[in-house]
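Backbone geometry:

***
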Amino acid sequence: MSTREIDEEHGALFAQQEQLPKLPVPDLESTLQKYVESLKPVLSESEYKHSAHVVAKFGQSAQAQELQRRLKARAAEPGRASWLEEWWNDLSYMGYRDPVIPFVSYHYSYNDDPRCTRATQRAAKLISGAIAFRARVVDGSLEPDTTRTSALCSHSYNYMFNACRIPTEPSDKFRTVAYHGNETIVVVRNSRFFEFSFVRNNVVLSAAEIEQTLEQIVQTADAADAVAVGVLTTDHRDTWTRNRRMLLDAGNASVLQAIEAAAFVVCMEPDMPQTREELSHVIWHASGRNRWFDKPCQFVVTDSARAGFCGEHSMIDGTPTLRLADFAVAHSLALPDGPVPRGFNPAFNELRFQTPPTVVRAVAQAQSRFDVNVAAQHVCVLNFAAFGKDKIKKLGCSPDAFVQMVIQLASTRHHGRARPTYEASMTRSFLHGRTETCRSVSSDSVAWCTSMDDPSADTGRRIKLLRTALATHSRLTREAVNGHGVDRHLLGLRMLVAPTEPMPAIFTDPAYTYSSHWFVSTSQMSSEHLCSYGWSAVTPRGYGIAYNIRENSLIIHVACVRNEHGLNSDRFAQCLEAAAHDIASLIDVKKVSEY
């Protein structure tokens, strides 16, 4: 579903692609050993003994060796960039049928810009920044993301602009269109869709010209209501597939084409959020009426000139879009206010949906389901100002490992025991790499958490246990980043079991399901430009913990579903704050490395 070929990749952004290694197939024995180690802290003694026996038996079996051989053969296939890519994209995203909002999409809430008092002014400056970033992607002049030692894979940048997820059964597709000839932005306001070109006479519009265009769009949109067709994108993917066909049958092909082909979407929301939590809800989803959630990039601006970004996750992870967000914000902050040139006349088109009664009914039903889904999402945003990256480093700790131990201590106290915890680890040092799981709960983290509430444990012992737990976590993260985690390898083996073959007991063992049921799902995106970022929990029984390690503060976004399991984001956030204070008090006297 593409008119833009990947072989069009060029410039500095893609210059290192051919030099990138492919995702490795880890050693089977090593993976099984790591898997068993990850089970010990989350299972009872009897459960652990049973599962360890199951894993050992699998490792000795001819079937395990055969599955490993098949996986290595798949990885070595000519023309295959990654043995994991096709499976992962389908299982985790394209084939996942629950609504993308709130269950897949994520959001960044930006710091306020005190110079911008008008929503159209804030939006225009962010749009100007996004256009400038897009130009660097299109001509390839954007430098690739890097680690300290090497470039990272840039493949996902192909799916940032002029792209859209398309609902289909049984698995969605992703459409990209040519950059050139599609220099358009879609603006949504009051459930109405508008399109304008950001290039006129081969010159990119200025921020002042964009603002004037937005002002007229908002005035036009607010003059009359429309059927909120955008809310159809919030529905179950199979339902949305059928409703998209219905839209096409009603004569809306050109409207859908314009939205799906646009560079990105700008959502002008009427809300006036006050609290951090209110802002998160508005940027993430708001009423659902002024969105097209299948677009990978939606910039959101409220009537109070607060702003953020909502991302569709299926083909692009957070690091590239955070780079876009940071660039757009920095660009907007540096952009002076300028006059609109004389004679400038805003030009835009309304994308008018044909909405027969069948469409109106479908929209009403989708609205009802969306309202139920988002009403159940409970969010708390913790702004911990006592310390941030600077102080954590001065204490001799890895900032990420430090926050993960804060989460472990809070989770243990909240749940009364260690629960399986996921941390996203980036594998973009490999061709077409995305993420691997870091299983954050270790025997060392459990030993340290236990000591923190053990009155017989003195400070020296607690710090020594913390040092060990931090080192273990850093090792687990390195292994995951280097493609030697547990979960993706086991997935690959499981996917290669033929339909006619028995499923190995390692995958039917309850511990396999339980240990990857993420009661706590975590991820870090750190930026001084964000006042929060977040997404939903990945299970009705768990919490989604998104954290931003700023220079002098920690911002932690806690999300859960209010349901029969009694979850409460406020209470978990209180546990996080108490845990952070306890760790800071513990190690404030000396660096951890001094013990």
Q: What stands out?
A: The two ends are 58 Å apart (CA to CA). The first strand starts at residue 106 and ends at 110. The longest helix spans residues 459-481. DSSP finds 20 helices and 18 strands in the chain.
